[in-house]
Design brief:
With 281 residues, this protein is of the alpha/beta class. It is built from 7 helices and 12 strands. A 7-stranded mixed beta sheet has the order 3-2-1-4-9-6-10, with helices on both faces. Helix 2 links the parallel strand 2 and strand 3.
Amino acid sequence: MNHKTPQLFQHFVLTRFNVKLALGSGNKNVDPDWLRARFKMFEEDCLASITGQSRKPDHWLVFFDAKTPAEFVERIESFRKICPQFTPIFCDVFSVELATQHMRARLMPNVNWVLSTRIDSDDAINLRLFEEICRVVEVGRREFINPTQGLVVSGGKFFRKRDYANPFISLSEGADSLESVWLGQHHLLKRFGSVRQLGLKDAWFQMIHGGNVANQVRGVRVRSSSIDKAVLPASLVGRIRKDAFFGLLVDNSVFLVDRYVRSAFRFFRTKFRNMKISGRL
């Protein structure tokens, strides 16, 4: 299809910032110190990579806790000037129903197809990602679109990996049966429909930092010269370290084995837990 006819479908980007997934789950998400660190990552990496897209989304819905302190609410409102597609939504608790409700409210009358893409508030994406995703959308064909290849970023080191159901996945679907890409956990979405793998090199950048709950360094460390800096937000370009031969050697030998062992352990632990929950054990 011709991706220059955006009236055929609308593209929504969905981000949970500090909104709770359940009531009574603590208040770390409105702690000023935590928010200052998260806002810094959001502005430098996530926001910069959305505003720099070669094809902008129609709407970027970002969900915030209703109790977010006033000093941060003012900061949030300033993002509208930087990114016209940015729409903050303040709520007590997040739900898929809430997300689809806000999506439906913004659908144009002549649109019957929707693309939704998820991105975490502390991550970033290739500046051509949305253009490439929209290019392959087929109106009338419901499917997930998964950009397979990305970079895991830890400090100034970049590790290239493939992930066939990652946190940057999109859902192309009909507006009359809108569910959004958040209808399930990203690694389980193949249960809800077919997945098309998108082969864009370095399509996403997953940040590893002290506040990560589940993410760890994975993949093979790559030379900085192999990264196309034209598709990176400026903050990431400035973070690239010079390559040291010994560092590359160690990261891709001893530490590589350690990363794969840890990854395999997490995989089987999660699989075992899911089997217990489903009653198959």
